[in-house]
């Protein structure tokens, strides 16, 4: 895989990788940004990046406090959203395809609500809907884990349990083509709430791939095919600068 770059946002240093588009990609193809879930880092996408990069340049950041990015709080969903927007600004990405898993999907969703014109399409893989979730919040996590700052989890879970009502309301006006990928009965995320989220999105579509919460890891072929089919159906003109 490609080497890491660092971007200083003033309040935090983010690490990211960039994989150039393949030789047969259009020079003006809209880039893709892949956002990992909580407690992991961008390497979760390693097996999928070469396929996606055949058609466009791919960016793979590590979210704040995870992977090779700086471990500095406070940790919040809107803070991670603002980090993403700062990364796009610093890398001069005016418009992108956002693909996010779990926490990364939530950050992508918030980013799309804040800066809709900069998101050509949105893929939300097993993204917790912005409704109270009743998740158990761990306590007593004083040490950092190998790939993330443990302080992230209680902070983020608290927000997911009591989300800003504006986030749910904002879905109704989020006019961005959105594919909601659900993992089926093996997932711990409410499939009914994900279906409600997809229905609320004006241009939302729900697809279930019964692989559990980690669809991209456990069913990579089906995941890639679903994303590429979704993008192809939108038409090439949407994905050129």
From TrEMBL:
Annotated InterPro entries: AB_hydrolase_1 (IPR000073), AB_hydrolase_fold (IPR029058), Carboxylesterase_BioH (IPR050228)
Keywords: Hydrolase
Segments forming domain AB hydrolase-1: 31-130
Record has Chloroplast as a keyword: no
Keyword ATP-binding: no
GO MF: hydrolase activity
One Pfam family matching this protein: Abhydrolase_1
Protein's name according to its UniProt entry: Alpha/beta fold hydrolase
